[in-house]
């Protein structure tokens, strides 16, 4: 049973991922993949999957690396190193370890101009790059089972430092204090599933390395099948996330139809509330949502 | 977002913070008195069980206790917890603070010399009369500074209610700070806590003075 759920979820993810990553390629087959996602979601429900994403989504966002305004050179070096890692296969190799993220990675070797990239080991070996991230944002950055820091973003950043010959320092911070940490210089970047949309002018942006879709997670047997069905329902969301921002901004009209928008400190509590039936749905990005469902099974 | 909109948004949170504060005091002070009596019970089992209760309440983080109170009806008994959020927060806070208050009350009562009881008995006071007319008034005077400490801690602890997605003032401050990329909401929050605690300290000092009738 669990395997079937996992399989159908993977199908949903695969289908949804193909719609991501605008720019070159990808955009032509959006319609067909949406249909595939619908099918897969229905399948998941039929297979007895407890929680499913609605077919309709709240929108797409891009994850990029945020630097202090004006840190153009650093942004360029790190972005170049990320591209070099795409070329040598490290990017995809790290992606393989994170099935929830793999399908949302949007950098392709074909699109990269090799001539502009920094060379391996070209960085100053006495420099330590301070990676600022939220320790509570799996699968991008989180505390692993063995107590060490991990996640896609953490591993990619470590690989970047290794490539350039820099030292790596993990700076896990409170997400609410990220701007203060960055401006105070305790970290050199914010790199933790960090959404670019709506913050374009607040940071100097490095490369967009992943896309994500904000969706609505509901119990499969809840009878909620569209965004319109959310009218009069209680919807949960985590504070200071893109899903929250969308519901406050571009999807404010939708949020107005809810009976209540419950704002949580972490999605973990929201998910427990959903399981306990105290709320009807959760607005969450697809990768984090899939991670919640998948890790709940264990 | 203008400063006044920000204040208006946080104002609602301040009301919620105050709700937690006053309801917690309303329930935890009498409950603390009950726990104190149980803790001083002549029956050994009652005494030991109360000791364990106090040890758990003081020995585990309030945040975990809030989660426990809120989610346990569902996880243990499969009950629906819809609409139970606010009651769970008040239960969590009241049960936790009752444990602290109980120990403060106990300290106050045990500080009263045995001679007071003996004198009251000689004068023909019943046990109840002795407690309410002789002992309690003296206890209240002694414990007021410690109680003030706890009450001030409570004002600041209210921010833990956000663990259960209850949007009190500090969580709103964090949300506004994040969306506006601004530090101002934190300053407003700081001022709010300071003013609230100043009022608490002022009121408690007044009460202390009013009770200081032997000087």
Provide an overview of this structure:
The complex is a heterodimer of chains A (298) and B (215). Chain A is 39% helix and 22% strand. Chain A is of the alpha/beta class and 298 residues long. Chain A has a domain of 150 residues: D-Maltodextrin-Binding Protein, domain 2 (3-Layer(aba) Sandwich), CATH 3.40.190. In chain A, a hairpin with a 5-residue loop joins β5 and β6. In chain A, α1 runs antiparallel to α2 and α3 packs across α6. In chain A, 47% of the residues are buried. About 13% of the residues of chain A have low confidence. Chain B contains 8 helices and no strands. The mean pLDDT of chain B is 91. At the A-B interface, α8, β11 and α10 of A face α3 and α7 of B.
Topology, element by element:
The complex is a heterodimer of chains A (298) and B (215).
Chain A: H1 2-19, H2 30-46, E1 51-53, E2 59-67, H3 72-87, H4 90-97, H5 99-102, E3 128-134, E4 136-137, E5 141-143, E6 149-150, H6 152-164, E7 167-173, H7 178-184, E8 189-190, E9 204-219, E10 234-238, H8 242-248, H9 252-257, E11 260-264, H10 267-275, E12 281-285, H11 286-296
Helix pairs in contact in A: 1-2, 3-6, 4-6
Chain B: H1 3-39, H2 44-59, H3 62-77, H4 85-110, H5 114-122, H6 127-157, H7 169-180, H8 184-211
Helix pairs in contact in B: 1-4, 1-7, 1-8, 2-4, 3-4, 4-6, 5-6, 6-8, 7-8
């Amino acid at each position: 049973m669990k395997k079937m759920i996992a399989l159908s979820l993977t199908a949903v993810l695969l289908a949804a991922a193909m719609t991501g990553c605008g720019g070159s390629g990808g955009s032509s087959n959006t319609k067909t993949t949406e249909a595939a996602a619908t099918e897969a979601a229905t399948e998941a429900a039929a297979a007895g999957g407890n929680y499913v994403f609605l077919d309709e989504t709240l929108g797409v966002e891009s994850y990029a690396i945020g630097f202090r305004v004006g840190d153009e050179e650093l942004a360029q070096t790190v972005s170049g190193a990320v591209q070099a890692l795409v070329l040598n296969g490290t990017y995809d190799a790290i992606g393989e370890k994170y099935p929830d993220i793999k399908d949302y990675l949007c950098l392709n070797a074909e699109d990269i101009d090799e001539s502009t990239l920094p060379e391996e080991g070209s960085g100053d070996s006495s420099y330590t790059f301070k990676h600022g991230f939220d320790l509570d944002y799996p699968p991008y950055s989180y505390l692993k089972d063995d107590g060490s820091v991990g996640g896609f973003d953490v591993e990619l950043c470590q690989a970047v430092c290794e490539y350039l010959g820099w030292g790596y320092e993990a700076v896990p911070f409170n997400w609410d204090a990220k701007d203060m940490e960055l401006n105070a210089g305790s970290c050199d970047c914010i790199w933790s599933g960090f959404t670019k949309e709506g913050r374009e002018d607040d940071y100097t942006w490095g490369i967009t390395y992943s896309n994500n879709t904000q969706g609505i997670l509901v119990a499969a047997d809840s009878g909620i099948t569209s965004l319109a069905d959310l009218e009069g329902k209680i919807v949960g969301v985590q504070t200071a996330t893109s899903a929250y921002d969308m519901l406050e901004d571009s999807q404010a009209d939708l949020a107005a139809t809810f009976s209540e928008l419950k704002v949580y400190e972490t999605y973990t509590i929201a998910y427990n509330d959903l399981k306990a039936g105290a709320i009807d749905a959760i607005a969450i990005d697809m990768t984090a949502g899939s991670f919640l469902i998948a890790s709940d099974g264990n | 977002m203008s400063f006044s909109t920000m204040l208006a948004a946080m104002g609602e949170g301040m009301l919620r913070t105050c709700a937690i504060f006053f309801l917690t005091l309303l329930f935890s002070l009498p409950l603390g008195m009950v726990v104190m009596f149980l803790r001083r019970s002549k029956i050994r089992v009652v005494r030991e069980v109360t000791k364990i209760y106090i040890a758990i309440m003081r020995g585990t983080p309030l945040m975990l206790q809030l989660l426990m109170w809120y989610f346990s009806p569902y996880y243990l008994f499969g009950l629906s917890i819809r609409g139970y959020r606010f009651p769970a927060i008040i239960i969590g806070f009241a049960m936790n603070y009752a444990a602290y208050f109980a120990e403060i009350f106990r300290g106050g009562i045990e500080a009263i010399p045995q001679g007071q009881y003996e004198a009251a008995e000689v004068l023909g006071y019943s046990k109840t009369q002795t407690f309410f007319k002789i002992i309690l008034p003296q206890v209240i005077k002694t414990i007021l500074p410690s109680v003030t400490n706890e009450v001030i801690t409570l004002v600041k602890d209210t921010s833990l209610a956000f663990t259960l997605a209850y949007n009190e003032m500090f969580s709103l401050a964090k949300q506004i700070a994040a969306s506006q990329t601004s530090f101002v909401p934190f300053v407003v929050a700081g001022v709010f806590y300071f003013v609230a605690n100043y009022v608490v300290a002022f009121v408690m000092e007044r009460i202390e003075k009013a009770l200081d009738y032997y000087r």
